[in-house]
């Protein structure tokens, strides 16, 4: 997952100015995003422990920090709560602010605030990403097939 995220993020940022990435209206609306880039991970109403454990590792957090992300929001659904204690280096924890939750009435505020969304291959999540015109990395959950 890390090489894919690195490649996707670098391709989005390669040679683009901030106003080209966010658009003029969004740039004015979301000035904080310019300095606090957010990555949102969602599994919808299912469980996808493999994905959640992958984004909860020290290596993943170091990678997204190096790519300019300072906030990671994880919606873990019916699965196990991410064990961020596995991120042993306390300095790494400070690089990226991490928030996690099982469910919320709506994921839209988190999706709107995100610079990029990592999603399970659920139709609802993909449609929300498309409707919001958000960059999305879709990860297939083979255990559900």
TrEMBL record:
SUPFAM superfamilies: UDP-Glycosyltransferase/glycogen phosphorylase (SSF53756). The keyword Protease does not apply. One of its GO terms (molecular function) is N-acetylglucosaminyldiphosphodolichol N-acetylglucosaminyltransferase activity. Residues 38-143 form the Glycosyl transferase family 28 C-terminal domain. Gene3D superfamilies: Glycogen Phosphorylase B (3.40.50.2000). Its EC number is 2.4.1.141. One of its GO terms (cellular component) is endoplasmic reticulum. It is found in: Endoplasmic reticulum. Keywords: Endoplasmic reticulum, Glycosyltransferase, Transferase. Belongs to the glycosyltransferase 28 family. PANTHER family: GLYCOSYL TRANSFERASE-RELATED, N-ACETYLGLUCOSAMINYLDIPHOSPHODOLICHOL N-ACETYLGLUCOSAMINYLTRANSFERASE. This is UDP-N-acetylglucosamine transferase subunit ALG13. It comes from Proboscia inermis.
């Amino acid at each position: 997952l890390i090489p894919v995220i690195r490649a996707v993020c670098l391709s989005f940022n390669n040679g683009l100015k901030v106003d080209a990435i966010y658009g003029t209206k969004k740039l004015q609306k979301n000035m904080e995003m310019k300095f606090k880039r957010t990555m949102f991970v969602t599994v919808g109403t299912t469980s996808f422990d493999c994905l959640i454990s992958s984004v909860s590792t020290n290596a993943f957090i170091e990678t997204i920090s190096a790519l300019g992300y300072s906030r990671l929001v994880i919606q873990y659904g019916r699965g196990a709560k991410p064990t961020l204690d596995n991120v042993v280096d306390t300095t790494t924890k400070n690089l990226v602010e991490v928030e996690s939750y099982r469910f919320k009435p709506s994921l839209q505020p988190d999706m709107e605030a995100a610079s990029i969304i990592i999603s399970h291959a659920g139709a609802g999540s993909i449609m929300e990403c498309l409707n919001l015109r958000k960059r999305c990395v879709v990860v297939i959950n083979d255990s559900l097939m």
